[in-house]
Structures are given as structure tokens and as C-alpha cells.
Amino acid sequence: MVSPPSQRLWVGMLVVFVVLVVELPGALQKCIFDEVQVQVRVVEAAPVDPDSPPSETRLRAPAGQEQQTANPGFKGSPLQAVKQRSSLGGLVPPTAVSPQPIRIRTWVPEQSDSLSEAEKDKLEAAVEEAVRMVSSLLSVDRVRGPLLLSRDINKYCKFLWRNSSTVNYNRCGRANNNYRSESCLDVTIPDDHLAGCDVYPEADSPHRTALRPEGAGLTDTDFLLYLHVQATDKCRAEPNVLAYAVHCQTDTHGRPVAGVVVICRDRLSGAAYSHQTTVQTVIHELFHALGFSKDLFHTWRDCSSSTQVTHTDGSGQMRIYTPSVISALQKHLASTDPELGGPLENLDAPPGGVSSHWESLLLQGSIMAAVLGDSTTVRIDPVTLAALQDTGWYAVNLSRAQSLVWGDGEGATFGSLSTCQNGSSSFFCTGSELGCHYLHLHKGECQTDPYLEMCRMYKPLKNGSECWKKENERHSAEEDWSGEIFGFDSRCFFSSLNRQSHFLLPSSSVEGRCYRHRCTGPNRYQIQVSGTEWMDCPAGGTIQIKGYQGSVFCPDRFCLYADVTPSHDVNTFPASITSDSFQTSPSAQDGTWSSFRPHTEVTTVTALCFTAAVCLLAAVMVSYRKCCSYRVRIHTVPEDHSDL
Q1: 3-class secondary structure for 374-437?
Q2: pLDDT tens digits, 14-52
Q3: Buried residues in 126-160 as b, exposed as e (16+ CB within 10 A)
Q4: How far apart are CA 387 and CA 394, in angstroms?
Q5: Which secondary-structure segment (H or E) carries 538?
């Protein structure tokens, strides 16, 4: 099938954004998935009657539906239709083939605005990178043959034959003359992607009329994304919205198989655009579309520990209680408390209701929190991957989860108002002083927001907060007297240093400042201040620096997480940390570097110095891009970091 350029298939590209606020300087990007998904009618594939001939359409109606009901738009399970030879998951006999990485295909509708080459390159590069990551994390029982989507019987059929003694029981008896097409979120689904549908005019006659022929479907596809690029009314009304989307079709097991993303075209250009933020946005929304949705929680297939996936704990916190989620959270907090289900956000849900996001106070930094901060602080965390595993639709590579540093090992009470206000946890702060973000990549200011429920944490400053950016030296008026050094291996430390010769400021308050560091072992490291040699910095202690007044405070839980890195050149995932790994790479913060490849291939680069490591990683990535099996052009787009 040949399609015009504006309607071509982008194979290997990715799924769904929901409405998302662009990450502007000083702002968080916020997801309002639940507000959009509720507006969309989801078409579900119906089980196939084994007695039906292979070419016939079988219909499902909700219990109690009367004969000759005229397209009622009733509440409850919608009527659905699906061809038996359609390959929606579960319609063919299961085989012994193990799950394979999910194949996601993107279709660009004809009505999408044409893009400039620069806009197209940005979008393709971000979506393709996100697809590679998700495909390496999630595997499915692949669709056999072409993927055919279902037609909504509520649209094409005027009534069903409901007398069970008739030959055509539960089949469509009369067509809706107003039926034109299938759509999802204002995108018209091509007939070639849809199963056909038939009408049986007489109750006991096998004679039928083909209302619509069966389409060819889409080969090598497990999820179909309609990528719609438009300056829509919603985009114009919400200047901070990057994109919005939904899932709109599920298979017989409830797994989403199709969705739509609307990209606000104007957001693909301008100084606020960030490649890495867009990649994370796509992953966040893909996870929503693939099952992390309150509308799908009740359909999750692995809920062996409870008859209900979500319910409140003793304090009224709504949580997800499924086996992998409970285990992941208990491991993260180092607790065996059985109440530790996955906490869901309270702010964006009605009282007693359910959210499609993790509670930010408890799982700050998770890719599925309701708000995402600076792209270097967002993690594809083990609790989120555990939730996707418990949908029952995916085999999830849990070993590829990124380290969730927030609250690590803090116990079952972490995130309570008492722990954030009494100073018992170093993850929280009080007042409005300056300090360091908990990952130590950024200087920060002690702040709160509605999602933190009056608790406060050090959030990255609006401008020049990144210690790892060499160019931020020009923003720091304190550099000359506080000994700051900015660069890739610099991190934020609480410090009161002041050069002894600096007569204007004989003393200094404690605040976040940037100094070089190098790891020498797990939670062991050295730092370097301007004009000094490397010095050991004992975790949890303080040191004085020759030529300076004041002290540097040495953070605990430092040089422990192999994937905490500011690098946007390679997507790092955790690797085991041993003293040997630090001996071979003393200048890398986290000791081990892993280059990220599709599926299960991981290349670990160990270098004797930072420069050699970067050069080798660059070579690996160039080689990877040349041999990548995806059939989409890979574009290298200079990343604009002006929004960080």
C-alpha cells in the first residue's frame, strides 16, 4: 500500500502524548491525561464466537440490551465488532513463542499540517529515541498477521437481532444510514486499518450485506499511533500545551492497541524546545497509553493479591496493590510494611477517586509523577515498570529500571507530613534558603508546590543552576570568592567557603555551590575547589579547604547510583557498582557507564579517564546509529538547553 508523503508510515516511532505543558524556564511540565481520556469513547474488541464462519462478524451486546435498540449510546460496556481473522491479541490460538519487544507504528493522517524539515527532524528524533527505550523495556505476545482495528457497532448498526432462537442472534440487523467513518480524537481512521462489517436484514436468513469491506491492516504492528500535527483550538487556547492524546482501541484482553497524539505544531520550534524533555514526554504518555491509566486499572490481568487493584490505605492514601508494585516499593523504601502499595496522586483526583499518576510527595522524580521537572532529574523507575508488569499484558525488563533516588531506604513513613517538617529526612528542607537538589546536579532553592502538600524540597534554580554546565561559570558572581568550578564532573555541595583574602565577605552562609568531584568507591569520593588539589570528602562529614574560610559538607548517598548523570548523549541505565568499577573510572561520578541499545543489548564502556570514556561512548553511539534496524531516518539535532 502506497501512501502520499503526508500520510506515510513512520515505523518504529512512538505513542501517545496526553495534554502536556511545555517545560518552560522555571516551570514544571504537567500532565492532564485523565482530563482528556475521559472525553474519548474507547472501542473494545469483542471475543470471537468459535462457531462463526471465518469471514463473519460476531457482535457482543451488554446484558439486557433489547432487540432493535436504535443506536442508543447507552452507558456501560459498548457494543463491538471484530473479524475473526483480525489479529488483535488473543483472537488466534496462543503459541509457545515468548514475548517479543513491542512494535509501535506511527501513522501521519492526511489532514496533519505539513512540517518543515527542521520540525520533522526534531519530532522524528525525539519519538524514535523514546520508542527504542520503551521497546527495550516492554515485550508482548505479538500480533500475528496484520493488525486490524475494530469498528464501533454503536455507529454503524441501528439494531441487533436479540432473539436467541434466531439464526442471526446477536448480529446487526440494520445499518445506520448516517454511518460514515471511524475516528478517534478528531482523527479519521482509514478504512484500510479497520475490520469489515456486515448487516443481516432477516432474522433467519444467512443472506448478508457487506456494509464495509475488510481492510488490509498493518503488518508488524502491536500498537498503532495516529500522530496528528495541528495548531488546534486546544493548542491555541493553551499556549503552554505541547501535545495531548488518548488510547482509543483495546484488544480482547484489554490491552490498548491504538491511540492518537495531537502535536501542537507551534511547539516544535522556538527557544523553549528541548529534545530530552520531549523524549521523556513521549515515554510518559506512552506508558499512559499502554496501560498506566485509571480507566484501565480494573482490567489489569495480574491482580492475584487482591480482587481490586486500587484502594486506600489506613491513612486514606489511594494506592495500587498488585504483587510487583508492592514488592518494588518495599524494596525501594527498605520496608516490609504490607500497606506499601503504589501511592497515587491525590491532587488531580476527586475525593476518594483514582489518579493516573504517582503521588509526587512519595515518588518524586518518577517518569509517572503528575509533574516532571528538569529532564536530568526524571527517572524511568522500578515502581513504574513493576506497575506495567502487573497489567499482565507485558513482559517487563525490570533490571533496566533507572535508580529512583528520592526516598531510597527511608522507610514506610517517608513522605508523611511529619517526616518532611521535622527535619528527619534529608530529602526535605524548610524555609526558603539556597542549597542543592537531592541528585546534586543542580543548585536549588527550598520551595514547595501544590503536589508537595506544603512540604518543601530543593528545586533547581531558574537560571544557571546546572553545576555540570561549563557555560554557567559566567552566571556565577560568587565563583571568585567561593572557589566554584563548573563542568561535566562538577556537582552541588552545601558550602560556606570563602577565600581568606576576600575582604568584602569575611564570612559566608551555607548554600549550594559547584565543585568538581570524582568517585573512588561506593559513597566514597574526592572534591576539588578552585586553586586546590583533590581532597577526600567523607560521606556525612565536613572538610576545610586550605586558603578558604568555612567548610564543605560531604553528602551521604553519593557515588551510589550508576545512572545519575547529566549526559544527554547516551541513555544510561544502572549497572552493578563495585569498588573495582571505580578504580577503572575514578573521574566518572557514578562509576559505571552503560550505553543504551534496543532490546537487551547493552554496551558497557570502561575508561581510564573521563575524556577517554566520552570518546569511546561517542564511537559506540555512532556505530549504533549506523546499524540500527529501525526503518526511520535517524537525525542528529543540536539540543537547545536554553529551557533548563
Answers
A1: CHHHCECCHHHHHHHHCCCCCEECHHHCCCCCCCCCCCCCCCCHHHHHCCCCCCCCCCCCEEEC
A2: 333 334 433 333 445 555 465 556 656 677 775 544 444
A3: bbbbbbbbbbbbbbbbbbeebbbbbbbbbbbbbbb
A4: 10
A5: none
Cell of 588: 566518572
| Three-state DSSP class for residue 6 | helix
Pick from 252, 244, 324: nearest CA to 289: 244
Alpha carbon 477 to its chain centroid, in Å, reads 37
CA-CA distances (angstroms) from residue 536 to 326, 521, 545, 577, 591? 39, 11, 11, 20, 16
CATH superfamily of 298-400: Leishmanolysin , domain 2 (3.90.132.10)
Active site residue ranges: 285
578-597: pLDDT as tens digits: 333 333 233 333 332 222 23
Phi/psi at 121 (nearest 5 deg)? -60, -45
CA distance 618 to 636: 13
514 three-state secondary structure:
strand
> Which class does domain 1-44+100-148+218-290 fall in?
alpha beta
Task: Provide the percentage of residues in the chain whose pLDDT is more than 70.
Answer: 70
Number of helices and strands in the chain (H, E): 11, 37
Enumerate the CATH 3.10.170 domain ranges in the chain, comma separated. Answer: 1-44+100-148+218-290
* Every domain range in the chain assigned CATH 3.90.132.10: 298-400
C-alpha to C-alpha distance for 377 and 531, rounded to whole angstroms: 30
pLDDT tens by residue, 338-370: 889 999 998 878 887 899 999 999 999 999 998
Task: Take residue 199 and report the three cell numbers written for it.
Answer: 448487516
The predicted-structure confidence for 501-540, as pLDDT tens digits, reads as follows: 655 555 568 999 999 999 999 999 999 999 999 999 999 9
Higher-confidence residue of 450 and 48: namely: 450
Q: CA dist 220 to 93, 291, 634, Å?
A: 18, 21, 20
Report pTM: 0.76
CB 248 within 8 A of CB 185: yes
Task: Please state the separation of Cα 438 from the chain's center in Å.
Answer: 21
For residue 53, what are the contacts with CB-CB under 8 A and spacing of at least 6?
Answer: none
- Give bridge partners of residue 86 from the DSSP assignment: none
CA distance 84 to 254: 17
